[in-house]
Write a structure and sequence with these properties.
By secondary structure, this protein is α/β, with parallel strands linked by helices. The protein has two domains: 195 residues, Glycogen Phosphorylase B (Rossmann fold); 184 residues, Glycogen Phosphorylase B (Rossmann fold), CATH 3.40.50. The protein is built from 17 helices and 13 strands. The protein has a seven-stranded parallel sheet, with helices on both faces. The protein is globular and about 65 Å long. It starts with a strand and ends with a helix.
Length: 386
């Protein structure tokens, strides 16, 4: 079976979804799946050949050469995002009329709608609870699945799968595949002391670290609220864009918080240094990212967090419970309760045995959550569905 993966994103780019797509396609090709990545021309490399674009992408995302990249269309991928609508049209024509791929694979909603309307055989992937937020879209996909035009849907969590199932999508066509960790992104493995020396951090201080996007829907302000109750602990928030740094700096000032350090976006190999430097890693204990905004379900950062082998503090929510077990490989705390969370973090950092237990079990959990293992599960499912 030949597969075309259509993506309308800009590459290379810091958005997490681009990293997930590249890691996914790279691991599938390594597992022997015949899959090509169909991209719009990139504004920053408009005249680059497929080979030149692939080299830049592989270097940025730390994957080996061989993504099978094909570029289509004349409208480049830019901030205007016109390509979000034009590229799927060009790509579908290219994939069906010129190359005749057996199946088209995407995580772009507009592309999936076009594929459904054109009656093209396809697969769809998402992390979102679209059965709740976009029921009409799922109804359209359900019709295609029942007609046999849709091979199936890949979900990043059971929470997302339950949403699709609740909207009427056939259970037998749902495949839950948690994302994975690329162990090469975690190299070199560093001790806490060595990582802090590289980053010029205090060797004796306590650090709680967050890495990732910091736009408003991530509710990173929750971590600042916790910091206000634990002035003896340092909080490193790593990965902010300039406007997010400005917003959070104002929030810190309003809260009179001085133990939060805001760090701009970092290359992948630098992110791992911050993870290794941490006493504990945190996912903002807030309900809004999943319940209100619906944009954060079993976040991508959890996988390198686990691989770093550090205690993880996360909200006690259904998506987190798929991989984290409270007081076993993570500390699950009540969402939207910063004062209570602060007490829990303070207690954790004063309990060395608990920290060692959570760290060791987190690292053990990560061993089975690799992109290679995910690709093999996808390949086995694909064989059954073909």
């Amino acid at each position: 079976m030949t597969i075309a993966y259509i993506s309308s994103e800009r590459y290379p780019h810091h958005n997490t979804n681009t990293q997930q797509i590249i890691k996914n396609v790279s691991s599938l090709r390594a597992a022997g799946v015949s899959i090509d990545l169909i991209l719009p021309r990139q504004a920053s490399m408009y005249f680059a050949s497929n080979t030149e674009l692939e080299a830049a992408i592989c270097q940025y995302y730390n994957v080996p050469p061989g993504l099978g990249i094909k570029q289509t269309g004349v409208f480049p991928a830019t901030n205007l995002q016109i390509d979000k609508y034009l590229h799927p049209i060009f790509a579908i024509i290219y994939c069906r009329l010129i190359k005749n791929y057996d199946v088209i694979y995407t995580r772009n909603i507009f592309t999936a709608i076009l594929l459904a309307l054109f009656g093209v055989k396809f697969m769809f992937e998402t992390y979102q609870r679209l059965g709740d937020t976009k029921p009409r879209f799922i109804k359209l996909l359900t019709k295609q699945a029942k007609k046999g035009r849709m091979l199936g849907m890949v979900l990043h969590s059971n929470v997302a799968a339950d949403s699709m199932r609740g909207a009427g999508f056939p259970s037998e066509k749902l495949l839950v595949l948690h994302n994975g960790v690329d162990n090469s992104d975690m190299l070199p493995v560093l001790s806490k002391r060595a990582a802090r020396q590289k980053l010029n951090l205090d060797l004796n201080a306590r650090y709680v670290v967050y890495t990732g996007n910091m736009q408003k829907n991530k509710c990173v302000e929750t971590v600042v609220d916790i910091a206000a109750f634990t002035p003896e602990i340092n909080y490193l928030l790593v990965g902010a864009k300039p406007d997010d740094i400005a917003r959070l700096a104002v929030y810190c000032e309003a809260k009179k918080v001085q133990n939060v350090q805001l760090v701009e976006r970092q290359p992948v190999n630098m992110v791992s240094q911050y993870l290794y430097a941490a006493d504990a890693l945190i996912i903002p204990p807030a309900s809004a990212p999943m319940e209100q905004f619906g944009r954060t379900v079993l976040p991508f950062k959890l996988f390198p967090y686990l691989a770093a082998g550090r205690p993880i503090v996360a909200p006690d929510q259904a998506d987190m419970r798929e991989l984290l077990r409270n007081s076993e490989n993570g500390l699950l705390v009540k969402a939207d309760a910063p004062e209570q969370n602060a007490l829990a973090i303070r207690a954790l950092l004063s309990d060395e045995k608990m920290m060692e237990k959570l760290a060791a079990n987190a690292a053990e959990t990560a061993r089975s959550l690799t992109w290679e293992a995910r690709a093999e599960k996808f390949k086995a499912w694909l064989t059954l569905e073909a």
